[in-house]
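Peptidase M56 domain-containing protein
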Amino acid sequence: MIIYLVKSALCLLLLLGLYHLFLERERMHHFNRAYLLLTLFMAVAAPLMPFGIIENWLPGVAAADLASGRFSESVQPVLPVSDKASIGHPSIPSKPTIIILAASLYILITAVLLIKFLAGIHFLLSSMRRFKTAMYGNSIVVLLKKQTGPFSFLNCIFVNEREYLDGKIGREIIIHEQTHIRQRHSWDILAVEIIRILFWFNPLFYRLKRAMQLNHEFIADRAVLQKTGNRSRYQHILFRALQPASGNGMVSSFNYSLTKKRFQMMNRPRSQSDILFKQTVGVTILFTAMVLFGIQADAQTQDRKTLSIEIGTSQVIMLDGKEIHFSHLEQMLSTYDNPEEYVVHFKVHPNAPFGLITDVQRILRRTDLRRLNYSSEDTLKSDLVREARTLREARISMQIAEARFIQQSEAYMSLEAKESNLSRLQEAYQEVSNLYERLRNKQGDLTELGAEQLPPPPPFPPDPERRINNRN
């Protein structure tokens, strides 16, 4: 999760930074709108795309862990509770406790922002029902009682009732807001607002929303100038229409603070060659971000090399299921080729000596085995319970196979051994052979699971020919 957030932030920083440097000041507003929407999408989705190279630059991170959504940890001391108390260190919150606290804080802040967002939506929708409305062309004009600057949301234009009825709201203002409606700018803002609520800790999403709003104003300003052709009159109207901010971040309004940039854009000449070059740069940047911040392709398919180390209550250590003394651990680990490719599954028993744990970790660092997956006490217990359950089920399965073999053997031996009965004897004997083979397979499964002191299989009965010859 942390790797995802880091890559998401880096992707957004790259795309948004280059937008401000190369694209924002050019009169290619519809291209810029598409670029900003793709920037929003890439910031969320690029770290999940099935290609990428940036994880090679992140030290201590396994590619397989990136593909699965996990991340490996560097070697750090693991302190069992009993040892923490015994050596006199002050108690510190455990990792699960910190995660729970962080998750609780995230949920709380997200819930507050979501409630505020829904309250703003509710206010706008309820205003459409509570206040008088009028039609201006194909647009619905909502007449508000309070003093506010004109703004639009979805398919409605919101204006002060007195100013509208007195004719103080010019035609240019209505054309401006109708452009927001026709271009469906409200949906852009709703999309970025929802993502901003989920990623409230990343200030770059606030900058992205601001860039989107300014681009929307550029588009609407351009539409007004194309219809009226009077730039100085429109700029004068903008000055008169400016009002204190409405406080609702989801509307397109004349309250926006970057009026100076809008005036500069109206006066900027259009260079077709510069636009074509910068559009090419923008597309290249988007493609680069997709390749750079995705998940490396082979990370999804390659199997990481793994080894397990289990520390118990003595100097005996389990290395890949084999018992070795601690003094031989470093010698054994030094035989592994390319240790940086391994992921170590590190299990520590609750009563393991703290000194032994730190000694093992120092050896892991010296042998460059730094990617660890720690198993807590609960995880270790659940693993042991699962293994015990599997072993018990295998024993029951073997006992059932043994009982069926004995039953079939007795049925076979109860048949009379004579030439006229040979076909029945052979058929029963074949069934006995099949059950015996199944029994041996069950015993083999138990042996692989580590079961010891297995009883010998029951005696195998003689074949039909031998029984007939013995009788004669």
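thats it. The longest strand covers residues 305-311. Strands lie at 132-136, 139-144, 151-153, 156-160, 252-253, 305-311, 316-319, 322-325, 342-348, 372-375. bye
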